[in-house]
Amino acid sequence: MDLLCAEFLSYIQGHPEEYRDQKNPPRRIEEIRKAFEGKVAAEITAPQIEEWLVGIQVDRELANATINKLRGTLSMLYKHGKRKGLIDVNPAEHVPLKDVGKGIERFLSLDEERRLREVINRDIAACDPKRHPELRKQALHRMIEFDVSIRSGLRRSEQFNLRWPDVDFSRRIMRLFMTKNWKPRNAFIIEDVKKALLTLKELDVHRRAGKDDSDDFVFSKSDNKKWWAAALAEAGITNYRWHDNRHTFCSRLVQAGVHLKVVQEAAGHASIASTMRYAHFAPSQVVDAMAVLNWVS
User: Fold this and answer.
1) Mean pLDDT throughout 9-21?
2) 279 dihedral zone (left: phi>0; alpha: psi -120 to 50; beta)
3) Distance between CA atoms of 261 and 249, rounded to whole angstroms?
4) pLDDT of residue 54
5) Which of 46, 63, 86, 138 suits a disulfide with 94, CB 3.0-4.6 Å?
6) CB under 8 Å, gap of 24 or more: what pairs does 209-215 form?
7) Of 55-59, 73-77, 230-234, which range is least confident?
8) 105 assigned to some structural domain
């Protein structure tokens, strides 16, 4: 696989007129090389590729379109290898493309948020702080997880890989290194997020030692899928994922009249095109702007 990656990368870099994007294809090739390092390219199967794609999609909360790009790069890599006589198979072409749908974002309504908070608060109230102090801490931790998510726009991987040394309360930023495109960025701390994080500090909860025995992770859990699914079900909320908290964050900023460039910076979108998906949530802004065309008598 290393040889196929090197050959395709060399071709891309040598043909900038064909590959005008000299940043993303090489980055994807390097990601593929690391994932299948040491494996014989001809022996890699379509199920193995699909399993890898599913795994990174869950871990990094990647969109279906992003997964399709990775799958496409892998397929082109094999096709290039066939042209060069290096290989005679292409297992990637047998991996089905993900459905990208119609691109409509799901966001949490105020009523849904109210119901969800009621569920989480009931769990907190049910835990006696004297008899079950650890259970109460876990219940409080869940509310803080949700508060930080919906008020900061962090992706799941960004949030649960955040460490205390990277939280700068004085500058009101969180330095993120585990990002979608592996490019470090800053997320911003509003007052509610600051209060939530300081409350979490007071809880003094730590993540169990695992692959990384460091105790400086901000959140004591690395996975919240179980309690989140249960809370959504109890609140009667369907077709909603943790990642949709990020969509809610962006859409509410736009609804409040925040400039799209500011939303782009707050969300850490690589391009304004990603931010533009939320523009339709503020039709009143368009109407207000068009008022300049009204006839003034």
Assistant:
1) 88
2) alpha
3) 15
4) 93
5) 46
6) 214/163
7) 55-59
8) no
Amino acid at 32: I
CA angle (56 as vertex; 54, 57 as ends), nearest 5: 60
- As a three-state string, the secondary structure of 108-145 is CCHHHHHHHHHHHHHHHHCCCCCCCHHHHHHHHHHHHH
Task: For residue 85, report the phi and psi dihedrals to the nearest 5 degrees.
Answer: 75, 20
Q: What angle do CA 173, 176, 179 make, to 5 degrees?
A: 140
Q: CB-based contacts of 279: which residues, under 8 Å, 6+ apart?
A: 254, 260
Query: What's 157's DSSP letter?
Result: H
d(CA 110, CA 156): 21
Query: What end-to-end distance do the CA atoms of the chain give, in Å?
Result: 72
Q: Which two tokens stand for residue 258?
A: 């925040």
Is 139:161 a contact under the CB 8 Å cutoff? no
Verify that 69 and 151 share a domain, yes or no: no
169, amino acid identity = F
Q: Rounded distance, CA 79 to CA 58, Å? A: 27
Kindly report the CATH number assigned to the domain that includes residue 219: 1.10.443.10
Residue 187: closest CA among 227, 154, 222: 154
Tokens of 108: 């949490």
- Kindly report the CA angle at 46 between 44 and 47, in degrees rounded to 5? 100
| H or E element in which residue 185 lies | strand 185-188
CATH code at position 87 = 1.10.150
Each residue of 282-296: pLDDT tens digit?
A: 666 677 778 889 987
- At 33, give phi and psi (nearest 5°): -60, -45
- The pLDDT assigned to 95 comes to 94
Q: Which residue is listed with tokens 């909860």?
A: 205
Higher local confidence (pLDDT), 280 or 83: 83
In a domain, 151, yes or no: yes
Domain residues for the domain of 23 are 2-94
Residues 213 and 163 in one domain: yes
